[in-house]
Structures are given as C-alpha cells and as structure tokens.
Design a protein that fits this description.
The complex is a heterodimer of chains A (about 350) and B (about 280). Chain A is mostly helical and about 350 residues long. Chain A has helices at about 1-40, 45-55, 65-100, 115-125, 130-155, 160-185, 190-200, 210-225, 230-235, 240-245, 250-270, 275-290, 295-315, 325-345. In chain A, α1 (about 1-40) runs parallel beside α13 (about 295-315) and α3 runs parallel beside α8. Chain B has helices spanning about 40-50, 70-75, 95-100, 115-125, 140-155, 170-185, 200-205, 220-225, 230-235, 270-280; strands spanning about 5-10, 15-25, 30-35, 55-60, 65, 80, 160-165, 190-195, 205-210, 215-220, 240-245, 250-255. The chains are: A mainly alpha (about 350), B alpha/beta (about 280).
Chain lengths: ~350, ~280
C-alpha cells in the first residue's frame, strides 16, 4: 500500500515536473527571442528595444531614430519569426514521423519533401523567376515529391510503412539527381551560385511577405498535429497494433503526412535546406520530457524554435560574413547528436 | 457476448490459408487454438480482428456481421493481446495501458482522469499496480505480457483474442499469465487463445480447436479432442498422453514426447544409432 502511495505521488510529481519543464522551455524561447532583437551589427540595447516595443501599445515619447524601428521591425522581426517557425515546424514534423515510422532515426525529409522543394527552387532559379516565384515552386516541388512517394507506396503490396520509407528514399534520390542535372546546365556565373546558395539554406533575405506566405501552411500543420498528438503514441506501437486498438491508421497516417509535408515544404521554400533540426531536436526533447507525445510534441516545438533561432543568431554573428544556416545546423547538429548517442540515456531503445 | 465464425475462409491475396472455419465462443469460455507453425493460427486471428479481409464466410458478433465495422467499433468489443514485443520508445507502463482507451477517446483528445482510472483498475486486476510508473521497455518479459493484457482490459472488451501469449516467456511466467487468462474468463469474457503447448490447452481451456492443413481437424473438450493420434497428425511427432492425479485429487493430463520409445518398436531390430537415440530419449 505504501509503495503504491509513493508511486502515486511520484506519478503526479512527474506530470507536474513535465509541465514545469515545458514552462522552462517556453521561458528559454522567450529569452532568446528578446535577445535576438538586440544582437547584430547594428546594436539595439535591451532598454531601447523595450521602449520601441512598448511604444507599439503605449503612447510613449519617441526618442530614437527611424533606423532603430526599421532594424527591429523590417530586418530582425521577420528573420526571428522565420527561425522560430521553421525550427518548430521541422522539429514537430520530425517528432511525428519518428513515432509513425517507429524509428528514431527518421527526419522530416524522409518522404522526399526537401529534395522535391530543392528541385522546385532550382527550377525556379533556372527559369529566372522572381523570389516569390522560386518560393512557390519550392513549395509545390515538396508537395509533388511527397505525393509521388505516397502514391507509389500504395501500389507496393508489402509492409505499408516500409513501402513508404523505401519509395521516399527513391523519390528523394530522383529529385536530388534532378537538382544536379539543373545545376549542371545552369549558367555557372549567375544561376549556379544562386542555386547552390539557396540549397545551403539561409534566412538572411527573409521579409515580412515571406512570413505571411508560410504562416498558414505551417500553423495548420502544427495545430492539427498538436490536436492529434496523443494518437501518435498509439501509432508508435506499430500500425497493426494501433488498428486493433481502434485507430483508423490509414486516415491518421495520411493526415500526419499531409501536415508534415505542408510544414516541411513551407519551411524549405523560404529557408532553403536546413538539415538535422528535425532529427536532433525530437531526441533532445524526448530526453527532457520523455516519449509521451502529449508533452513531447509541444516540447519539440518550443525547443526547435529556440534552437534554430539561436543557430541563426550565430549565423549572423559568428563571422563578418553571413554563414549559411544549413551548414551551421549540420556542423552543430551532427556532433551534438553523436554526443547524445555516446553520453546520455537514450530516449529510445 | 458471442463470437461466431461462420464458414470463414481466409488468407493473403489470392492464396487461401484456411477454409470452412466455423466456431462459436461464448462469454466465460476459453478456447485454445492448437496447430503447427504456419497452420494459420495467426491468419485466423488477423481475419477475426479485421486486419485481413476475409475471403468468404462471416465473422459475427452477437449475430451481427462485422465486415463493415470501423476499427474503433471492433476495438470496443474485441481486445487483442499480441505476442511479446518491444516498442522503440520507452513509454511508461500507464501510458501503454492507456492506449487501450483509444477506441473510447475522441480523436482530438487525450485520456481523461476517467480513462486513467480505468487503466489503473486494469493494472490492479492483474496485480501489477506496482508497475504503473515503470518504463515498459525495462520491465521483464512476463511483466510486459501482463501489461499488454491490462491494456486489452482497458478497452473494456467482451472478447479477448490472444496470439500465443506465452511464447518467449519462461516457465513461471507462462503459468502466471495463463492463470490470469482463466481468471478473466471468470469475468464472463470470451477468450480465444492460440497456444503452442497441448498441456496448456488441457489446463486452461474449456474447449480446443485443432487446426491442420487449413481446416479444423477436430474441436471439443480438451479431454476428448487432444489424443496422441491427433497430435501426431498436427505436429508429426509421437506423444504419449498420461493421466496424473494431483494433490487436490483432480485428474490432469500431461503430454510426453515419446520419440522412438514405442512399444511396437523392437529395439533389437533397429540400428545402433537409432537405438542410442531411443535410449537417450527415454
């Protein structure tokens, strides 16, 4: 009886500490969010930042130049928002896929979304489309690649999850080859570098227009995943078992793929290829709050947003020249992932 | 509630594995399903659960054909206990048991305190409340099997289907799991259990169904159904069935593989190797 009581206390303590942990993650995100406004070539002291932000709602006397407002609202705000949204979206998609495929080594581009988006963008740049045109092409490219993957997997009479992963790898490779093909024929002085830089991933030229464009697909995907998050636990037990437990696995699978693809394609379309976030962050989140998607998904979202914002700040500040974000996320993500594998209690077996 | 299979045929794609399977299970009964590896026990179970489309005949729950039922509708009546397995993520035991509530929870919701209560009752029924906050992937195989039974109970089903629930368990855990199965039948659940050992069928089932070459070879009470001859047809080995009286003065039947040691074999007539083998088996 006493042990039972002790465990009950432990259990409630556990769920409470998880709420606390989510709170800490939220706080970390908010702190990095505020700090990010002050960091940069043009320095904005925190006190001034608070005044400028405060002036948006309160009638404060304006004792700063227009440049400060431009830097805060036109330059840094869109970039900060984009980093948070993309980091959160890729991490949520990665976490959802890892459960659905019962495999902790899966990332959001497993079904070819990134390769497809990269191909769309490369094609857009090759045909000298406007920035918006390139973004739309990238978004469509991501959707088309995943639609192909999904369509092909339905025709494979075999383990449906394995069929999805296999056709995803095939379609991804196909689009990667197509990207190389476009690079090969592209003008080497003008378009080839543009394609190469785009593929490296960067948030340097994000403006508010870009944010308006991707906020809907990202938010729709994220909210639907958030609402369905408990069911992802059941899905992680395997498709057949989930179905026997009463889950409409086919429908859930389609919805999850749709949400993840919307989020990933939208992210890639404005930020380029940003790897490793969607693989590393869900792991880190699992170590902090455990594998239950009820808390794992929100934790991944908060942690992913904070992480990518921090890395993007580093991309802006570390060198005199902007470092492509995709390179930094890999340079930081891979050693960090190896560290997790070697040194800590895994969030999975 | 009554589960009835009426002339069921099932298999994969065009390939027929089982034909003309008719069978009835009522609340409070444990039916043991015996047959060699690959005889179609798992295929039959998958077809009943709706994981495989049936090729002919009907699965009826209280007289209603469940062919068009959704997975949630089936899950509210039929609980399933798979063979022991390990999921890739270290869920807490309570979270695993709560998954049994899936069919009762609105798609956009998480389990409520009422669901937690039902899951806790299921743990209590199997005397494993102490596992509540343990990590499912870190407990023993026997405990994990009991957790899976608790999860099926949290579904509040009328029918339980078990696919070799004791495979890969040690001797003690096999007995523990099976005694819980008997206890559950006492709660008026109808239980269909495939098993490897004829002795388990003797001890824990009211009726047995012998599957052989895609058909039911025989079904009935364990005592009259499990004979040495039928076991030879099923498994291709010689078996002696021996009656023993236990200390409660109850007659129990035990199967003993007899190898070459058969009365009709004249030890003088067989080769030296065979003789050694026969003696070793004796």
């Amino acid at each position: 009886m006493q042990t039972v009581l002790k465990q009950k206390i432990a259990a409630t303590g556990n769920s409470k500490s998880n709420t606390g942990r989510i709170g800490v993650l939220l706080l970390v995100l908010v702190v990095i969010f505020i700090l990010s406004f002050t960091l940069g070539r043009y320095s904005v002291p925190p006190s001034q930042l608070l005044q400028v932000l405060g002036a948006q709602i309160l009638p404060l006397e304006k004792n700063w130049g227009d440049t400060v407002e431009t830097v805060i609202f036109q330059v840094r705000l869109p970039r900060i928002l984009a980093a948070i949204m993309i980091g959160a979206a890729l991490s949520a998609a990665g976490a959802a896929y890892q459960g659905m495929f019962k495999n902790p080594l899966v990332s959001p581009d497993i079904l070819g979304a990134s390769a497809g988006a990269g191909f769309g963008a490369a094609l857009g740049i090759y045909f000298a489309m406007s920035m918006v045109g390139v973004q739309i092409m990238a978004f469509i490219g991501g959707l088309v690649a995943v639609a192909l993957t999904y369509g092909i997997s339905l025709r494979i009479k075999h383990d449906p999850m394995l069929a999805l992963v296999l056709s995803g790898i095939m379609i991804g490779s196909l689009f990667t080859a197509a990207i190389s093909c476009i690079k090969y024929i592209a003008d080497p002085y003008d378009k080839l570098p543009a394609i190469t830089f785009w593929l490296m991933g960067s948030l340097a030229s994000i403006n508010l227009q870009d944010i308006y464009m991707v906020v809907t697909p990202i938010m729709v995907g994220m909210i639907v995943l958030f609402l369905l998050r408990w069911r992802l636990n059941v899905m992680a037990m395997g498709e057949e078992e989930a179905q026997v437990l009463g889950l409409n696995t086919r429908r859930l699978k389609t919805i999850v793929i749709l949400c993840c693809t919307l989020m990933t394609a939208a992210s890639v379309s404005i930020g380029g290829l940003i790897g490793w976030v969607g693989l590393v962050i869900p792991h880190l989140a699992r170590m902090i709050v455990g594998p239950n998607y009820r808390v794992l998904l929100p934790a991944s979202i908060l942690l992913g947003g904070a992480y990518l914002l921090l890395v993007d700040d580093m991309a802006r500040l570390l060198a005199s020249m902007e470092i492509p974000l995709g390179i930094l996320t890999a340079l930081i993500g891979v050693p960090f992932f190896l560290y997790l594998l070697l040194n800590s209690k895994w969030g999975w077996k | 509630m009554k589960l009835k299979l009426d002339n069921l045929s099932c298999g994969y794609g065009q390939r027929k594995v089982l034909e003309n399977i008719s069978l009835e299970i009522n609340g409070g009964e444990v039916i043991g399903l015996l047959g060699a590896n690959g005889c179609g026990k798992t295929t039959l179970i998958k077809s009943i659960l709706g994981l495989l489309p049936t090729q002919g005949g009907e699965v009826l729950l209280d007289g209603k054909n469940i062919k068009r039922w959704t997975s949630a509708q089936i899950a509210r009546v039929v609980g399933y206990i798979p063979q022991m397995h390990t999921p890739p993520f270290p869920f807490e035991v309570l979270d695993v048991v709560l998954m049994g509530r899936t069919a009762h929870i609105n798609p956009f919701a998480s389990p409520s305190s009422k669901d937690v209560k039902i899951a806790e009752q299921a743990l209590e029924m199997l005397n494993i409340t102490y596992l509540r906050n343990r990590i499912y992937t870190e407990i023993s195989g026997g405990e994990r099997q009991l957790v899976l039974i608790a999860r099926a109970l949290a579904q509040e089903p009328k029918i339980l289907i078990m696919d070799e629930p004791t495979s890969s368990l040690d001797f003690g855990n096999q007995i523990k799991v099976l005694s819980h199965v008997k206890q559950l039948a006492g709660l008026n659940l109808a239980i269909l259990m495939s098993c490897h050992f004829p002795e388990h069928a003797f001890l824990y089932s009211n009726r047995v169904v012998l599957l052989n070459e895609g058909r039911i070879l025989h079904s009935g009470t364990p005592g009259e159904t499990i004979t040495a001859e039928r076991l030879k047809t099923l498994y291709g080995v010689e078996v002696e069935i021996v009656s023993v009286i236990n200390r409660l003065n109850k007659e129990l039947k035990v199967c003993i593989p007899s190898g070459y040691f058969r009365p009709e074999i004249d030890l003088a007539q067989i080769s030296a190797t065979e003789r050694n083998y026969a003696l070793a088996n004796y």
